[in-house]
Amino acid sequence: MTTIDIGINEQDRIKISAALKHLLADTYTLYLQSHHFHWNVTGMQFRELHLMFEEQYEQLAVAVDDIAERIRTLGEAAPGTYTAFSELSAIEEVAGVPPANEMVAILARSHEQVIKTCRDVLRLAQQGEDESSASLVSDRMREHEKSAWMLRAML
């Protein structure tokens, strides 16, 4: 591969990429969680939650690709295995199928965790003068804040 000269020094690119890997893992784990709950939700709010979870996991699928491509743009390999994601993610997997109201609470907490991860990445991106990563992460943070708010409003 050729030298990367995009105005971000190598040390900053590596630090930002490492933080983005955590964000990718959190996002992918949340994607799986949302998809799992979409498939398995039951109860009085079935239709509303089924559709909401679908909307969220579809947005997350796009986000996963955007984050992975940003990592590649910075010259690092993007993780792509369950093992790597489980090591990097701060979101805990859910065993079994919880009741619908618990699914909502779990997803709200998971979105809040992704927001915290976004804040960590954003700090590093700003310090490294990486406006592209900062913009991506800021946009993601706003989406997760909105999703968390909507989920909390249902509790």
Helices and strands in order, then pairings?
Elements: H1 10-40, H2 46-73, H3 82-88, H4 100-127, H5 131-153
Helix pairs in contact: 1-2, 1-3, 1-4, 2-5, 4-5
Protein model, in words:
It comes from Thalassomonas haliotis. Belongs to the Dps family. InterPro entries: DPS_DNA-bd, DPS_DNA-bd_CS, Ferritin-like, Ferritin-like_SF, Ferritin_DPS_dom. The protein has five helices and no strands. By secondary structure, it is an all-alpha fold. The longest helix has 31 residues.
Keywords:
elongated; 155 residues; Ferritin; mainly alpha
| Multimer state | single chain
* Principal-axis shape: elongated
How many distinct domains?
1
Note the gap between the termini: 50 Å
Order of helices and strands: HHHHH
Spans of at least 5 consecutive residues with low confidence: none
CATH architecture: Up-down Bundle
Q: Specify the CATH class.
A: Mainly Alpha
The percentage of residues in β strands lies in under 5%
Total strands: the figure is 0
Work out the radius of gyration.
Answer: 16 Å
Structural class comes to mainly alpha
- CATH fold topology: Ferritin
Entry summary:
The protein has 5 helices and no strands. The protein is mainly alpha-helical. Helix 1 packs antiparallel against helix 4.
